[in-house]
Amino acid sequence: MRFHVMTLFPDMVMGGLDTSIIGRAMKQGKLEIEAVNIRDYTRDKHMKVDDYPYGGGAGMVMQAEPVYLCYKALEEQIVSKNGKKPRVLYMTPQGKVFHQRMAEELAEEEDLVFLCGHYEGIDERVLEMIVTDYVSIGDYVLTGGELPAMVMIDAIARLVDGVLNNDESAKYESFADGRLEYPQYTRPEEFMGRKVPAVLLSGNHKKIEEWREQESMKRTMERRPDLLI
Ligand code: 9D3
After folding, report:
1. Pocket test for ligand 1, best of 9, 135, 142 (most atoms within 8 A of CB)
2. pTM of the predicted model as reported, rounded to 2 decimal places
């Protein structure tokens, strides 16, 4: 799977994703992630990519042309490999809220383009021309779309075949079955006077399974009762 991020801060995006599990998958050739600098597509002699909003108001608006030219260059590259135009996800607080189900659906795509805004947003005309999906990661205010794109790429990439190894496998997990996971323990058996629950040392697999099921339910009721509705 290939992720393409259109941004004014490509180093921020690459720096956050080329480590740990996602970095390993990139090195293994299971994922490709590229961050394209929208500023490289300005034709302005001062490299300008934003301007004052028509009608007045605070802040600056990203201009249509650099975003359009950046997208067209990406589109050509993607169509030549894949044969079809990609979905283009615009990261915006005005979008549909990202969810595990959306990650599962997007993981079926071969290419995804993320468009990250900064300042007061992007000229509406280019959004109408290129965007297929408007996506937010939740109801809180950030400074730009880069962190949301990185969050989504992390959530989608781990669902791609071969990205997680057996141990890390996505098969049994919170949200997938609408429940929180049971608590985990490792050595030592006693830490600062706190013992590992005896049932986990008993070797009775049926009892262990029952205990985990019970703890999972208890934890979900305490922390995320909304998941049980
Ligand atoms: C000060 C401008 N705001 C008026 C209320 C609108 C605004 C525009 C852009 C507020 C924040 C941002 C920057 N955020 C994103 O680009 C963003 C975001 C977010 O802030 N929260 C959750 N998901 C996302 S996806 C992109």
Report:
1. 142
2. 0.95
